[in-house]
Amino acid sequence: MSERTSWSELREELKVDRAHHAYEAARLAFELGAEVRTLREKRGWTQTELAERAGMTQSAMARFEAGGTIPTLPVLERIAAALQMRLSIALTPAC
Q1: What is the pTM of this model?
Q2: Distance between CA 85 and CA 6 in Å, rounded?
Q3: DSSP 40-83
Q4: Is 14 part of any domain?
Q5: Cα-only R_g, the chain
Q6: Of 47, 64, 67, 85, which has the highest C-beta tally within 10 A?
């Protein structure tokens, strides 16, 4: 944050920061969901089959695949295990 002289300036900066963080969280959720859907479809599984293997409901899996939820690490671990995959998290340089 830059130097500011008023509450209204700070408020505007915070709005931009929150919007950016919310956008990035939504982007990540969408990309994760799309990747899981691709992996599930390659195996010929339904959402119900994957959900059962991951200890979830079909509706929760549908929301996840659509990018409608921001999953916790334990949920990601369960989905990865159900897909017979290993969860790998990487930090990469920002462009």
Answers
A1: 0.78
A2: 51
A3: HHHHT--HHHHHHHHT--HHHHHHHHTT-S---HHHHHHHHHHT
A4: yes
A5: 18
A6: 64
* Phi, psi (degrees; rounded to nearest 5) at 87: -75, 130
Would you list the DSSP string of 2-52? Answer: ---SSHHHHHHHHHHHHHHHHHHHHHHHHHHHHHHHHHHHHHT--HHHHHH
Domain count, the chain: 1
Predicted confidence (pLDDT) per residue in 3-37, tens digit? 667 777 766 776 767 777 888 888 899 999 999 99
Residue 56 contacts by C-beta under 8 Å, 6 or more apart in sequence? Answer: 64, 75, 78, 79
* CATH value at residue 63: 1.10.260.40
